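Supplementary Methods S3. Complex input for the magnesium ion-bound model.
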Amino acid sequence: MTALYDIRDLTVDLYTRSAAVRVVDGVNLSVAAGECLAIVGESGSGKTVMSFAPIGLMPEGVSVGLTGGVRLAGADLLAGGEAALARLRGREVAVIFQDPMTALNPARRIGRQIAEVCTLHLGLKGAAAEARALELMRLVGISDPEARMRQYPHELSGGLCQRVVIAMAIAAEPKLLIADEPTTALDVTVQAQILDLLRDLRARMGMAMILITHDIGVVANAADRVAVMYAGRLAEVGPVDQVLRQPTHPYTRALIDAIPRPEDPVGSPFRGLPGMPPQLAGPIRGCAFAPRCPRATPGCTALRPPMRGIAGGAGWQAACHHLTTATVPKGAAA
Ligand SMILES: Nc1ncnc2c1ncn2[C@@H]1O[C@H](COP(=O)(O)OP(=O)(O)OP(=O)(O)O)[C@@H](O)[C@H]1O
Ligand SMILES: [Mg+2]
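Predicted complex, serialized as structure tokens:
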């Protein structure tokens, strides 16, 4: 597989006045052209920082140290500095966030906002920018776009606003779309419509997507592969079908077991994961999940488990000392 987007040994440190915190710790990941990779993990596990820091969208209010390699369509993203990344964003890689309102200007008509993006990224002006804005509104399923384009964001529902944001994100037909919880703020039925729209656009444009989500149901329906993050590290990555059906990492297993099931009696307690994620302020010895892991043995806290290939799925890997020899192919690097 030739990767469209490739992250090697990515480490992100945040420096506050009192501490240095490693929030992304040695992550390797790749996304193929047209593929949808979901990123899951508990709050604070580093999903957002890992996805946005490599394209120059850094957490605010802290200094950031980033090491590793990041390539998009073969180009080294870290070689050209912030100016080069800024040119890339919106053109080669676009982003959408949870709350569409934060991405829109409340004081400007939506048609104008979409047209401005067409001017910025495509150099279109006047009637040409407006025509492209209309075309994009149709593409994202906004009915009666001629009337809608004269409206302000507050006149639109949350779902329609997210369609406007998606129209702006795909204006320059980026190769990669990074979507951070794009449906979390929306009603359930609207969530499904937006996920359908994203799937449809990906297929039409051959666009790859990184989809950050808390929702394993979304992973199952929308993604080709899934990466499970814990404390800034990857616990498991692989094809969605295999990982969800036969999770090999105890953390992946615990995440799946925590999903409420339809047969659960009404009012049954939420099956959350026992314990808390580790404090990231100090170095983590051994496996980060060991203190909460039902399978942990003394060796788990001594040595960090490497990612090892799992038999039965292309690119399926997990980082656990307890992977059995049956799951790890013979001769796999330890
Ligand atoms: N601006 C910031 N200042 C200080 N610490 C930050 C900042 N942004 C993120 N962090 C820290 O970095 C770590 C990773 O945060 P990140 O936002 O990537 O997590 P996440 O997995 O996206 O969580 P969530 O599911 O809640 O969005 C957390 O420990 C968080 O506290
Ligand atoms: Mg986040």
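The first helix runs from residue 47 to 52. The chain has eleven helices and twelve strands.
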